[in-house]
Amino acid sequence: MIKSLSPKLLDRYLFKQMLDYFLLGVVVFTLIAFFSDTLLKFIREVQKYGASPGTLLTMIGLQLPHSISLIMPASVFLAVLMTFNQLNNQFEIIALRMNGISLWRLSIPAIVLGFMVSLTTYFMSDYLVPWCNVRTEVLKENMMRSGTLPPGGNSFMFRSFDDNHNLARLIYISRYHRRDLGDSTILDMTKPGEMQILQSRSGHWDPVEGWDLRNVNMYRVSQDLNRSTAGHFAQLTLSGLLDDSEAAKQEEERQQRQAEGLEVRSDQQTFAQLYPIIQRREALHMKVAVNSYLRMWDKLTYPLSCLVIILSAIPLAIVPPRKNDRSGFIFSLGVLFLFYQLDSVCNALGHFSIGIDRPTWLMLLSWLPILILLLLGIFLINRKSKVL
């Protein structure tokens, strides 16, 4: 019986029970979260690069750390909930309380597990996931340079985004055979205040030489209507979606930003790399996207949620073990749902301004769900301690 265990043996017993449930939760939630729409969408996205089966499996494996890091809070929350709910239903909590063990003392193994999971999640989301994203991007670029269009020949769409996660270029090919193109439309929005549209009846794609388009209509639409132009070309060769000089200029600017430490790639950089870059951009009055701020703080707040969220699971799992009484379990799932909803709402509010300095406002929104969960957990544990 647990009531006969020493405090150290009790800690090991509870920790082992929670660890078993946690590992089971990681496996189950990963299977649910990854091998569903996420996997199908990723496969459809990668197919446009003409990936081989081996490369496709490698890229799928590189996405696993991201999926696992996302389900860590839910896994540790349910592990603590199931363990304490089981103790409660077997009247072990009452026996421990009668032996003078407080609810905060019982929470120590859960807090230790939450701390360990928080560190693991931080390492995965801040170091492993960016490394995997960089490797995935390298594989995509290699396939675009040396591969072929995906088999089938029905239609093909390729999108690329700028540093602020805004759509920069879009390619749509209605039909093709290997590298021979049919009707094609290319939109280029990399120039500020201007959009370039190219429509061709046929062409040929070469991963090295670029786009050889034939019978091309080209339009340049500018905010200044006097600068908008239109033209027709029997043949037009592009190394990218821009002419060679413009493409070289943009690549030179990108390399300069990278050398000066001003390039923001939140999905490929750690918090320690992102924070000084954003500080320098702010000092130079350069634009920083809202998503860049939110993703930077998420690298700290999301791992920390693995620790604070379990404080609510412990008291809600302890209810009078009456028959068919599932209120505590239901309320606990409500807290878990509340966490994810708070995170989504705060991210949405980040796109609005209320007169506060934007970096400060976004930092407050990022930390707000953690603060709410922490206060809620402390309140529930203290309240439950008074009634047991």
Rg over CA atoms, rounded to whole Å, is 27 Å
By DSSP, the count of extended strands is 8
Helical content (DSSP H or I, runs of 4+): 55-70%
Taking the sheet with the most strands, its summary is:
8 strands, antiparallel
Number of domains: 2
Structural class: alpha+beta
| Share in β-strands | 5-15%
Number of helices: 11
Order of helices and strands: HHHHHEEEEEEEEHHHHHH
> Kindly state the mean pLDDT as a whole number?
78
Low-confidence stretches: 240-248
Task: Specify the overall morphology.
Answer: elongated
Gap between N and C termini:
20 Å
Structural features, described:
This protein has 388 residues and is an alpha+beta fold. It has 2 domains: 246 residues, no CATH class; 78 residues, no CATH class. It is built from 11 helices and 8 strands. Strands 1, 2, 3, 4, 5, 6, 7 and 8 form an 8-stranded antiparallel sheet that branches. β3 and β4 form a beta hairpin. It is elongated and about 90 Å long.
Question: What layout of secondary structure does this protein have?
Answer:
Blueprint: H1 7-47, H2 53-89, H3 92-98, H4 103-106, H5 108-146, E1 156-161, E2 167-173, E3 176-177, E4 180-181, E5 184-188, E6 194-206, E7 210-222, E8 229-238, H6 244-259, H7 271-283, H8 290-308, H9 310-317, H10 327-349, H11 358-387
Antiparallel strand pairs: 1-2, 2-5, 3-4, 4-6, 5-6, 6-7, 7-8
Helix pairs in contact: 1-2, 1-5, 2-5, 2-8, 2-9, 5-8, 7-8, 8-11, 9-10, 9-11, 10-11
